[in-house]
Amino acid sequence: MNPETAPVNVTIDNRSITAAVGTSILQVARENDIYIPTLCFHESLSPHGGCRMCIVEVEGLRTFPTACTTPIDEGMIIRTHTAQIQEMRTEILQLFLSEHTASCLVCGEKVECREYMSTVRKAGVTTGCRYCPKDGQCELQAVTESLDVNEIIYPIYYRGINVETGDPFYDRDYNLCILCGRCVRMCQEVRLADVLAYKHRGRKTIIGPAFSRTHLDSGCEFCGACVSVCPTGTLREKARAWEGKPEREETTTCSFCGVGCQVKLLVKEDRIIGSLPADDPLVNQGQLCVKGRFCNTELVNGHQRVKNPYRHEGAISWDVSWNEAFALIAEKLQASSPDRVGMLVSPNLCTEDLYIAQKFMRVALASHHVDTTARLFYGAGFNAYLGLMKRAVPLAAIQNASVVLMIGLDTRFSRSVVGVALRTAMKKGIEIVTLNPREHTISLKANLWLQPGIGTEFRYVDMLAQLTRGAEVPADGISQVEREKLEQTARMLSGSSNPVILVGAEYLQYDSSRELLESVAQLADNIGAGIMPLPAQNNLYGSLLAGSYPELLPGMRSTGDDAQRKLLEAVWGTSLSNLIDSWTAASLVACDTPLQFLYAVGEVPPPMSAPADFMVFQNMYPPEPYGSADLVLPSAAATEVDGTFINGERRMQRVRRAVVPLGNALPDWEILCRLGRFMGATGFEFSRPEEIREEIARAVPEFTQENIDARTPMPFVLETDMREFTNDATAHHAAERAQTDSAPPFLFHASVIEHTHRGFPLSAWVDGAKLLFPEGTLTVNVEDAKALQLTEGDVVRVSGASFERTWPVRLASTQPRGTLHASLLETASSHPNPQPVAVRKADV
Amino acid sequence: MNEELYPSIFSQFKGEEGELITILLRVQEAIGYISQEAVKRISQFLKISENQIYGVASFFSRFRFDEPGKISIKVCMGTACHVHGGSLLADAVGWDLGITYGQATPDKRFDFQRANCLGSCTLAPVVQINDKIQGRVLVTELKETMKHREEF
Questions:
Q1: Top CATH class, B71-151
Q2: Within 13 A of A649's CA, how many CA atoms are on the CB side?
Q3: pTM of the entire predicted model
Q4: Complex ipTM > 0.85
Q5: How far is A717 from chain B (nearest CA, A)?
Q6: How many CB atoms are located within 10 Å of the residue A175 CB?
Q7: Measured between CB atoms, does B48 come within 8 Å of chain A?
Q8: What residue ranges define each of the domains in chain A, with the CATH number in brackets?
Q9: Do B59 and A201 touch (CB under 8 A)?
Q10: Tens of pLDDT, residues A196-210
Q11: Tens of pLDDT along A589-637?
Q12: Hey, are the CB atoms on B47 and A444 less than 8 Å from each other?
């Protein structure tokens, strides 16, 4: 046997143990259930040897090595709990405790006081001081107990540092910090985000970002990985601080974007108290972004959630029972004709919900008027985007690529796990080119940063496509520096193996989105690249598969496809409507004929040119202030239902019910099935999501339980061209731009907020999200703001060729000079985008 | 701020991580301190995050992060000076300027630092005003000198 790989024999505490070469003493001890106290050690981080708690005695060594950093050697005789070592550990621990201001750890009354904690008195009585949120889950507490330390012989050194509460989602109390460095290693080694560092030295050492900046100003992704590894109460989640220990965990799929991370929900007393990344080798590799880590809990626990069905008329609203609600809907539907009803569903819902929603429309109402807001989100680039989805490669492709091109992708707050994968790959030598007008988290470290002007991104991609084909490209309007970078990129891409192109959601609402996406496809063809479209909607593919579009039947076949119609008619036992018109969600925006009945399932309708006569709003939260409805039905959150999401890789993933729905809320499929049965329609006798899945499998053969459990990627069979939401403004934009090109004061560009869930911006119901991705603000470059004499929060009036609006100002150094950006809820393509505008302070 | 400053400093380096401390020293030589702007420029040049650069720089007492005052007053606190009452001198200067060591007056005219040894231990206690070293200073003397501080 090769002596370098031969197992090593050691003796730990008089036990002979054989272990693989290279293993640390600590690892061997843990594998054999020998307890060695540790504070700075963490399985997912590199060994640090900082806390000195794991010192052991090795025969023949003069010093006491730390078990976490010392690899085993043949014949080592190790003792872990000699009197001398225990004494040293106690000594070291007391040094820790002299700076750690939780006297509860060593308080002489700590045993007696527990008995009297439940005392009920009129006057104030100390009933146990619980001032640390980590009480009962603290690793320092555990080590203190294991070493039985009851007093501190050293003078107490209280650092008196103010608790940092200015950042969203978590607070930091560095008085409790023991400088184990887990958070720093997590941030620098695993997330590779480099936000946390040790500052100063000696006893002034503190952890944090540069100068005295907040995490928000230092590029922090708010992934919460540092909070997860903190052994003490230093880093604490604002929302979970005082919740205590979870009772159980449930692994499910995150519902905030098309990456589809696996999350571990922490449950206590039938309530979600936290969400942590699951260690999933296929998608998120134990990482999450701010949305999955922090927004999830707050969103599903919001006190404003709808708990009962209620009727709303004029200025008053009153609760109704489910049956009253169904009766009202049935009455309104009977008075409506099939061509004047409509249903808007959310691509955030489970595939089962989406399937039942379109079945309800097609069977119970004999209408094909069912659509999603994805059509509005992707606008003129819808077909081109779906074309990219057809070619989606798995996330693992990043690791096999030699060059990755990122187009309009910022992984700071969304798709952060992709950012982590990219940075990890970069360490291994993969080259990264990012194309983005704005400075973002990857731009610092990328090999090349292409910086197109706002609105000219599509020209860059087009030039890359032409250059990689070997064509000569005229150098009009692009600086020499940028041109050289483009040529270099083209050379890098042409000579690469397995390149990957990542497409973010930043330019998808521009007038040029179709050109951009088509150029991406061409470029990919030229260089043989894989494409990763990373959709903003967590179940966009599911919505196509379930047929939630007027032109698509389940199975992604055209509504006019005879074979599929026959198949579905046989499965559903009914005949499908022949009335196939041009109604889409875009008709709500553009058409002046109001619908008689509009059913919004998990979605907030866009501003309508003609409001429907009667609107049913089925969602987690009330429609106000983003809309209004005549009847509101409470639906269950994604943590309260069982179902399937299909991510951007087209991978089928299970959604598991962690808690029961809040109040009288029901899963969307159940509401629709009960309504269908109430109205006397057949084919809605489902009692469990499994039965719906079985029925979907009859129309879509690949949708089997085995494939779902194996998380197999689905084939992409869409051949129908989807109707695109274009607008007159788009067609005229070129002419308009030519007219105003002479001296455009500012270039305004808008995007639709992608941080939404079921039609609501996350900032509406999640406190921290208000700071991270505020909606309804205008982002202005810091220097421009100086010239305009604007400060943060000033209200400005922006006037363009076709619109005039006021917004509060938000300053950012990352916004390119001479440009303004707004994130809007409604679709931005109703205006030329981008377009030149004038801006001035509003008269207030 | 001279736009050419950073490119001219960076042109002497290859852009490797290990050059960080030398670059920081050059920057401090040129502008007297490590400004937020400097950290950002170095970060872009070396492709290291600003937070890590600050972490390294703040470890060394040599680097300062606030703009120094124009007239530098250093009070030695080395062993010999300490024994001869250096801290009393430091208190006197501090009271006079209304600041403590490590700071500059708000108008950025005076800069007050403590030194660990100025190499003139035979003259302890020692005070250095700009480039001039004064030895065997008494507190009363120093107070008298400080009265004429505008003429330094």
A1: alpha beta
A2: 19
A3: 0.91
A4: yes
A5: 44
A6: 17
A7: yes
A8: 8-118 (3.10.20.740), 310-372+539-643+665-699 (3.40.50.740), 393-532 (3.40.228.10), 728-841 (2.40.40.20)
A9: yes
A10: 999 999 989 999 999
A11: 887 788 999 999 999 998 888 889 999 999 999 998 888 899 999 999 9
A12: yes
